[in-house]
Amino acid sequence: MLDELYDELLADHEGTLSYADFTRRHARGIRCLELACGSGDLLVELEKMFPMLSGLDTSQVMLDKARQKAGDQVQLIQADMCRYRSDILYDTLLCFGDSINYLLSEESVRDFVSTTCALATQRILLDLHHPSRLAEFQEGYVEEGVVEGVEYLWQIQSSANRLYHQFTFYTEPMVKESVTQQVYSIDWLITLYREQGWSAEVYTDFTIHGKAEGEKYFLVLSKEVA
Predict the structure, then answer these.
(1) What is the CATH number of domain 133-181?
(2) What's the Cα-to-Cα distance from 120 to each of 85, 93, 124, rounded to whole Å?
(3) Tell me: the pLDDT tens digits for 103-130?
């Protein structure tokens, strides 16, 4: 129940289409893997682009929802995106929805970088929080509403380099869920990928080339040819 409420609360159809358009412009090849695919909203759009498509997530509940949306030809994998290994390699690998910010240690990010470099052959596309989000939520953020007929309260507070989310769902009994994200330097992330032989191109908020004020940075990583 909690996974479904959380997924519905964070659903963003317009954002999904923006991610799909970004992928269409920057992806390469015919085989694609989406890490942290969740309930599969983006997979539905990606099916139109890739003859061979896979989605990976840690949550079987989310993968079950993704199976209801995506075609039978889409492979769904339950695994840790920081440690997954496969004999199958992917032309393009995706990780969106600031999923990398849910990794709370530099060691986990290094594992993530190693995994993505091992799985992808041409392109890696990912996004992460812009550092300005820390200042934005320094004074706190509160949102109230109704999702799937259930009233909720969503609070966000930043401290140091982290964002703390508190979700309250007024079910019976009441459910509270805490989620923490860590904001990383995009320059540090680029350095990690360059050490693995990948070049980086930066975008801000889907369409702005280079670093600018915004909510998200995007990385288009290309495998360097020796």
Answers:
(1) 2.20.25
(2) 11, 6, 7
(3) 999 999 999 999 999 999 999 999 999 9
